[in-house]
Amino acid sequence: MKVLLVEDDPSMQMALKRTLLNRGMEVEVCGDGRVALARWKAEPPDVVMLDLTLPGMDGLLVLESARRSGLSTPVLILTARGTVGDRIMGLNSGADDYLPKPFDLDELEARLRALHRRHGSVGSHAPDPAIGGLRCDRESGAIHWRDQILELAPRETALLQALLARPGHAVPKERLFELVFPGESDVQYEAIEVVVYRLRKKLAHTGVKLVTLRGLGYLLKAGE
Description:
Blueprint: E1 2-6, H1 10-22, E2 26-30, H2 33-42, E3 47-51, H3 59-68, E4 75-79, H4 84-92, E5 97-100, H5 105-122, E6 130-131, E7 134-136, E8 143-145, E9 148-149, H6 154-164, H7 173-180, H8 191-202, E10 209-213, E11 217-221
Parallel strand pairs: 1-2, 1-3, 3-4, 4-5
Antiparallel strand pairs: 6-7, 7-8, 8-9, 10-11
Helix pairs in contact: 2-3, 6-7, 6-8
């Protein structure tokens, strides 16, 4: 699941991004309302988490503009404005759900996944990311080889999920490091190569190759 997090508080940004990355989601962060709207239009995510008090453009205006533009992405509003009137305004502006701060992180994850499921069931449901006989279950995050679940460490799973999201395309080493070691500033950059090495060994029997493209990153390639 790809989430656009629109939140201007740096500490909240970091905490939420780290939490969601650890739970198998891809997260893009933006702290300005106008910039967020532009990114939303350019590359619509699966779910938008939207704060209301933002620089550049208020969250409600961002939401209203998005809906007028025909963007149907489900939106979960996160805000300290917790009155009934504020909730009604948000829902009337096009929000799908509302979670006042402070909130429980398990509840946040459950609401995001519920929005994603409901939105996917309305229109055409995107298939699970896959290449060759490898497949990533969108709901559970588990990696399947044919009809069996691969036994992978959490970091190996995070790496493979990122590569399966773009099969046949190179994913930059920097991006993979963010996803595999979220918020871990004390980890050496070269640690991603260790995870790649271990994952490559575990994929050896599948026929799917984890290819290194120097200067570009890594990609998955189906066997001949």
